[in-house]
Specification:
mainly alpha
């Protein structure tokens, strides 16, 4: 009789990657939306933390993004890449049996 794998602990590497990329992606979306009505030097603590959390991935994506993309749009481009990488990571983890399945 085979024991069912633990939903959290047996797939911990998958959860770390999935939640990490989701955090980056959704925080970039929030940063972009808040930048529409807050100045770049805003003292709003939520906006400052969004900038602090996403500055390194935005700079990394900015290094590879063509120069014609406006700097204000870089968080959206970063979110796109984070969500794409999350999808690719799921496919790879599932391929090697390291992601939870949908079946019972």
């Amino acid at each position: 009789m085979s024991e069912k794998p633990d939903f959290f602990w047996d797939f911990l590497p998958f959860w770390i990657v999935a939640y990490g990329l989701a955090t980056i992606g959704w925080t970039c979306v929030g940063r972009f939306l808040m930048s529409g009505f807050l100045p770049p030097d805003s003292t709003n603590y939520i906006y400052r933390w969004f900038v602090r959390l996403t500055e390194w991935p935005v700079r990394l994506v900015g290094f590879f993004t063509p120069a014609f993309v406006l700097p204000r749009l870089l968080p959206v481009v970063t979110a796109f890449w984070a969500f794409l990488l999350r999808y690719i990571a799921y496919v790879l983890f599932a391929r090697y049996g390291m992601a939870p399945g949908l079946g019972g």
